[in-house]
Input
Amino acid sequence: MRAARLFAPVLAAGLGASAATGCASSSSLEQFQSAPRQLVLEDYFLGQTSAYGLFEDRFGKVRRQFKVDIIGELDGNRLTLTENFLYDDGERETRIWEIDVLGDGRYRGTAGDVTGIAEGQVSGNAFNWKYKVDLKVGGSTWNVGFNDWMFLMQDDVLINRAYVTRYGIEIGQVTIAFQKN
Output
């Protein structure tokens, strides 16, 4: 499993993201409301997007790097994102998000490895997206939380910083840069 291989070396050492840790703790969506760029998730991800990212453990050591090719399709108020991952070690994996556009900048979604419902909100150029994932680590499964903060930058670049937590303790961070094709 992609997620297990991504986190296994780091999780074994004891690693994740919470709203109360890192720079996410000082961010609130309201502060981005009047940003010069306005993010509309279903517009940004419609069509083809490429992304490049890495996972760092809580000590700042880069554990894994990857590229993601994304195809976004909108059917009514449902945004489907098909993410095709290629990891630096040659491993490939696909994740499919089904995201409901609820209006007023609110979103709710699911994916195969996400437990429960992911929920998010946009304000200005910022998007905060929270969800939990069950990761297989060795012979056990760990439920970890993701607190993603995405920011629409100039030239249609979208920067994502995800704080990963287990039992409320940050175990690592994922950084991703998205670029429209």
In short: Residues 36 and 125 are 8 Å apart (CA to CA).
